[in-house]
UniProtKB/TrEMBL annotation:
This is Phospholipid/glycerol acyltransferase domain-containing protein. Its main location: membrane. Keywords: Membrane, Transferase, Transmembrane, Transmembrane helix. The lineage of its organism: Eukaryota, Viridiplantae, Streptophyta, Embryophyta, Tracheophyta. Residues 346-447 form the Phospholipid/glycerol acyltransferase domain.
């Protein structure tokens, strides 16, 4: 007798589930369509992968669940932390970290609202967009699953849907790097040009999908987002559903650099790691020691001779490796260096990793050299332990200044004109070729595990402080064979820009970096929206 109430309850629950979840059994039961857009019966596939050879999907539009069908990690916390620190401040990031235990007890919807309030409140759209374009793409690419990207490549049209991450911070990445046609997501309210820290109500998204009317659509992502009551009507027009389970996502592979849909050459931001809760906690625990350590390291290199500052710096964790050093083990210059007296100084040409490149070369040579600078703040020049030569971007005036500096001693030039963090070389400016008969290429590479020592923002004058805040900053310096600046190929003398390209290619070959024709202007226009000119009085 007790089984009848149970049977009635089970049947009632089954009917309720069918109404909420659609018809996963595959029968042709139709929901009532009040939206004006055709509703297809659902065909649900538990297999997470869509092969690029599936011809029946070529003419369909893919609705891609960003959190469930593209990114490997189920947590969106790192992206909000990046917005909090990079667009806001370390204090804002610390507040978000302190709230993390509370976030673990909340639903995803409430988590998003709390994180948006902490991260976005009071920020301008300009700051957020700068982080969305310059900082977040690197971290998104490192989290993209190779299997999810294959799905996008296998369809003609793809629309991104983000339930947890606000559209403003994910749309630039999805359109520029993944190639999505449209991105639908939550909006953050703005009041008088600043974010109010509140999410807009979840719209049904019908207007967003109007362009796809008449096109068969396929859903690819997590089951939780697809079966969400708030979004079910948005995807009622999907003909097929490909569900990705959390167990299957744990087996997804990260993208290798050569598998990126678009090369990642430029990116900005101070954090060199993925700010998961654990990694962020470690960073904040290290931060007080890092501030004291960077002040100590800076004072050492500015005030003490290299013979003293370099060993002490090594004791504090600064690692430097020199290959083919022109200075002998006892600190004496080579015979070629000693024979060169009362002559024009050497011109060292190197790729540009941080503002400290010329300082490291000077310390390795154990002698004072001059360094060419452009658009560097006066504060950075005052702290420099070596003499700097400020360029004006007037070709004749710059030539005069560099020739004068070479008459006084050795000179270090970074022809790229700006730093590049990734394994690429920007175009070399050819002016250095016209100054001397031979140049001395130097290949540089450095590692920063916690903080990047480069920036395109207003805090650029703090670059070297951030670099020395790393627990173990490392540099590798490779002195290469000298190269003539007058080169004849097939009976024709090479132009100065061709020689510059040859020097760039040789440095790239030693480092394994890829040469490009991109310039300083390209970098700053992409990351900062300007041409990278810093006021000398700033």
């Amino acid at each position: 007798m007790a089984s009848k109430p149970f049977s009635k309850s089970f049947i009632a629950f089954y009917r309720f589930a069918r109404r909420r979840l659609g018809n996963p059994s595959g029968h042709n039961h139709h929901r009532r369509n009040t939206s004006g857009i055709q509703t297809f019966p659902k065909i649900i596939h538990r297999c997470p992968l869509v092969s690029q050879d599936d011809d029946h999907l070529q003419n369909q539009a893919l609705i891609l669940d960003i959190e469930g069908g593209l990114l490997r990690s189920p947590s969106t916390f790192p992206y909000f932390m990046l917005v909090a620190i990079e667009a806001g401040s370390f204090l804002r990031g610390f507040i978000l970290l302190c709230l993390y235990p509370l976030l673990c007890c909340l639903t995803q919807e409430v988590q998003s609202k709390v994180m948006v309030m902490v991260c976005f409140l009071g920020l301008t759209e300009e700051k957020v967009m700068r982080i969305a374009k310059g900082t977040l793409p690197k971290h998104f690419l490192e989290d993209v699953g190779r299997e999810g990207l294959q799905v996008v490549k296998g369809v003609k049209r793809a629309v991104g849907f983000s339930r947890m991450i606000p559209r403003v911070i994910v749309e630039p990445f999805l359109k520029e790097y993944i190639g999505l046609e449209m991105v639908v997501g939550r909006e953050v309210k703005m009041v008088r040009g600043r974010y109010a820290g509140l999410l807009e109500k979840e719209s049904e998204g019908r207007l967003e999908f109007a362009e796809l009317e008449g096109t068969e659509m396929t859903w690819f992502g997590s089951s939780s987002n697809y079966y969400s009551h708030d979004h079910h009507r948005i995807f009622s027009c999907c003909k097929e559903v490909y569900v990705v389970t959390s167990e299957q996502k744990t087996k997804w592979s990260p993208l290798q650099r050569d598998q990126y849909p678009r090369p990642l050459i430029f990116h900005d931001g101070r954090l060199a790691f993925r700010p998961t809760p654990e990694a962020t906690l470690a960073m904040f625990m290290w931060l007080p020691f890092a501030i004291l350590l960077t002040m100590l390291r800076t004072l050492l290199f500015v005030n003490l001779p290299y013979s003293i500052s370099v060993p002490i710096g090594s004791a504090t964790g600064v690692t430097t490796r020199v290959i083919n050093s022109p200075v002998s083990a006892n600190g004496q210059a080579s015979s070629e260096e000693l024979a060169r007296t009362n002559q024009q100084g050497r011109l060292y040409v190197c790729n540009h990793r941080t503002l400290l490149d010329p300082v490291y070369i000077s310390a390795t040579l154990n002698k004072q050299v001059s360094a060419v600078t452009y658009s560097v703040s006066r504060f950075s020049e005052l702290l420099s332990p070596i003499r700097t030569v400020r360029l004006t971007r007037n070709r004749e005036e710059d030539r005069r200044r560099m020739e004068k500096s070479l008459q006084q001693g050795d000179l270090v030039v970074c022809p790229e004109g700006t730093t590049c963090r990734e394994p690429y070389l920007l175009r070399f400016s050819p002016l250095f070729v016209e100054l001397v008969n031979e140049v001395y290429p130097v290949a540089l590479v450095n590692w920063s595990r916690m903080f990047y020592g480069t920036s395109t923002g207003k805090s650029k004058y703090l670059d070297h402080f951030y670099y020395f805040m790393n627990p173990h900053p490392a540099y590798v310096i490779v002195f290469m064979d000298k190269m003539p600046t007058s080169i004849v190929i097939d009976g024709r003398k090479c132009e100065s820009y061709e020689v510059a390209n040859l020097v760039q290619g040789e440095i790239g070959r030693v480092l394994g970096f890829e040469p490009t024709m991109l310039t300083r202007k390209d970098k700053y226009l992409m990351l900062a929206g300007n041409e990278g000119v810093v006021d000398a009085k700033q």
